[in-house]
Amino acid sequence: MIQRLAVDRTILKSYYVAAASITVFAAGCWGGFGHVAPEGMERISERRVREWVTELMPPGARRYDLIWAFRTQQGGVRGRSSVRFAPPDSIRFDYRGPFGQSGAAVVVGDSIIWAEPEEDVNELIPVAPLFWASLGIAREPPAGARLYGQQTESGRAWQYVMLGDTLSYVVSQGAKHRLQAEMRRLDQLIGVVDLTFADSTRMPERATLTFPVSAAVMQFTVEGVESLAAMDPEIWKRPR
Questions:
Q1: Within the chain, what is the greatest distance between any pair of CA atoms?
Q2: pTM for the complete prediction?
């Protein structure tokens, strides 16, 4: 379920030094993370899970304009990006960072099909299911996964368990609708997403992705969402 690319952090190190004033972590801010999913969830049908996933799925192609910020204990960088989504499971991700740095990637399902440059894009999309959740989209249950769920007046939670990986989602209603997602491997926390929706139409507003093992945080703030009638097929091809 977890997709990664080879990591070479040397390119971004200069960014961290130059942008250290953007944000500095306080000592001990990482603390402990509990499970986002509630206790007592029971086995649930695949049909019910797919219904909940479909409710979060955008009705058509969209373009998201984002401001992103990436932070570690050494400092942080920020920039802008656009994400073009084609249902049901394809994304073209383009970003601009400091000092003229830019890149792009295509994600289909849980796999990064191509990325340019690979080492930088891996920093921004380290775990594909959590990246999807940062846009307010839940992944379909994998074949063969054990499914658990729970629904209450305040929201719903569901979970996929397979081959040592556990992917959990919680949708809650309050002053603002909220989506949380969590990935664990052998009960080690890989990452957490906390997203708020702008309104009841499920338009994403702001998302925070936290990766405790690498002490990194990615934040997305949505500046605008545009419905698209069509997309140029060329955007899915790797640049030559």
A1: 52
A2: 0.82
